[in-house]
Amino acid sequence: MAADEAIQTRFIEAVRSAFWKLFQTELERKDDPPRESEEIVFTALAGFTGSIFGIVSLRLCEHTAVAALNKHKHVMESSDSPLLAEVEELIDEILQAAERPGADHLDFSLPEIISGSSYEVDFRKYRKRFEVGFDSAVGGLCLTVAYC
Amino acid sequence: MQALLVRFNPLLERTFRNVLSNQASLSVITRADGLRSGVGFKNTPVKGGLTSDILRYFESFAGSTAGLPEIIFYALSPQELDFAHDEVLLLRKKCAFRDVPILIVADGAVRREAERLLLAGGSGLVRFPEEMATLPIRIRESLQPVGKRMPVIAKLINPFISATIDLLATMADMTATRKDLFLKKNYRLAGDVSGIMNITGRMEGSVAVTLERGLALEIVSRILHSPASELTEEDIKDGVGELVNIISGNAKASLAGTEYAHEITLPAVIIGYGHEISHPRGAPCIVALFESGAHTFGVQVSVQVKK
Question: Cα(B270)–Cα(B237) distance, rounded to whole angstroms?
């Protein structure tokens, strides 16, 4: 149980730290994370192996991605898909913050970003899972970590 | 090169014809009722939805790939924004396994709406009229494979191809034939059901199997020896997860002991009409297209050797 809490804390802190680094904004936990719906448009997925193995998913509402984008105008000028580039930058920061060198190092895969207006990602192959919703000045997001 | 223009008014069409006259053979999707084509409607935007016109255009190829567009331009009309999402999604769906760039042509007034179409399957934006002078360069860039600065490990794809063909033959009693093999131009592959496995270790990346729902149903139904009509949503998710699990597991076993040995995670399954999977960060993405009966499906492998 303590190990599960440590994993939760590790990923939640990674998300907070990435958000602070990129957007200088605090995240607040929400009791009711956003569900798969029309509202969710991007999901960044990355697998990890190490002392545990699993998958981390970050779901973003479109307005979060757009708001984030507006803070990084250079991305818009340099990319055909500015929103995808923005989500990519965010997930990169989170994975770097969650990696940690040493005995509990996790090895992350390159992330994929799924887009579309209505889809659902299923993680039932993993035994354990936690989901946390966040709200911030730039919008909401939902972190899911599924692992064995 | 074959280019398709959708929802172009005559002024826009003329401009594109002038710019691309030596470079592309242009097709234009027009309304069946001719509303768009007459001289009297000069500069008038195309009215109403084009869904049936788009379907008619693609049906005219009757399953042949000859003459199908290599690039599509979709003009975003400020007067008909309501139709744009569904029309771009339909175009992406019709090109689902062929990696055709769809460039959204829009002026600054509808920039935000144009960006939203990137979620529906658009590959990039062309600002009109500012970017007309650089249009030939944009086209060239759009047709280039992504990740071209990274080494392409072609021999990596073979274990995945063999594993896919073997799996369908042994577990589903189906014949899959490999058709095209190409480097993706934009990392996007639209499907109804996809299974993804992540790869870590000396290599990092992912493997995705993307199918139309009809084919997913048929494969799972054959594997479970159960009529498709009796399958639940959970059966389909489990079945597609198992599909990519076995393909990746067999490929991993083939590569064990080589410089490409790697670890794999468990699969995640994505379900939803026309979702797209992007593999960012500049790694090349090799796609193998397979045909099984009347269906096409794709296996895409995007990996890089860790530095």
Answer: 8
